[in-house]
Specification:
alpha/beta, single chain, DNA polymerase, domain 1, globular, six-stranded parallel sheet, 9 helices, Rossmann fold, two-stranded antiparallel sheet
């Protein structure tokens, strides 16, 4: 079975473990005000997240998914976004239901775990600590830490090397096409959750190996093949 011989579990962050959109939207709208441009609001930001901070900034500036914002405007906007998000990193962000229970059960069962995100490490690492997840992960890898972001497999290979596990013995858990794509490109199985940030598309269309409604369901899924 596809989940046999798993030695480590890699989790995406935004949209999988934590709903970060409320704080990201605050940062985006603060950035827009600083540039004298209209606020975009949480609903739009929820559709735009998932490809890293710079892509989110470009989408906000262009007010569309294509994100074809001028480079000079993006360069002016980025420090405004960074400052606003750093000040509002963990104000409204919350764990999704079942995350704490699921990770606690996995850790108790002895699974090695890592968090791989397209979010910059300067934001990902303190967010993981502040929200109480730091003790679960052996590695937290930000988007700029690997040569290419997900859906490229670079971050998965790098993390597997750090944990000294074979990539084929890794299970990726995420919420988006980027996560499924990264797992496929790395050659490891992938489980998806349906509630996250996949630009409004049903994650089942990406054909993950399994879909679970909550991280709390993952220990039982793995126990079935243990």
């Amino acid at each position: 079975m596809m989940f046999e011989n798993i030695e480590a579990i890699f989790f995406d962050l935004d949209g999988t473990l934590i709903d970060t959109v409320p704080d990201l939207a605050v940062a985006v709208d603060s950035m827009m005000r600083g540039l004298g441009l209209p606020a975009r609001g949480e609903d739009k930001v929820r559709q735009w997240v998932g490809n890293g901070a710079e892509v989110l900034i470009r989408r906000a500036l262009a007010d569309d998914m294509a994100g074809q914002a001028p480079d000079d405007l993006t360069a002016s906007a980025k420090p405004l976004f960074d400052a606003a998000y750093e000040a509002n990193l963990f104000v409204h962000s919350r764990l999704y239901p079942g995350v704490s229970e699921g990770l606690t059960a996995l850790r108790a069962a002895g699974w090695r775990m890592a968090c791989i995100t397209n979010k910059p490490a300067r934001f990902a690492e303190p967010l993981v600590e502040q929200i109480g997840l730091g003790g679960f992960f052996d590695v937290v890898l930000g988007g700029e830490c690997a040569p290419r972001k997900k859906p490229a497999p670079d971050a998965l290979f790098m993390t597997a090397q750090r944990l000294r596990v074979d990539i084929h013995q890794v299970l990726m858990v995420g919420d988006s096409q980027n996560d499924v794509g990264a797992a496929r490109n790395a050659g490891c199985p992938v489980v998806a959750v349906p509630y996250g940030y996949n630009h409004g598309a049903d994650i089942r269309t990406a054909r993950p190996d399994a879909v679970i409604q909550s991280i709390a369901e993952l220990p039982a899924l793995l126990k079935e093949v243990a």
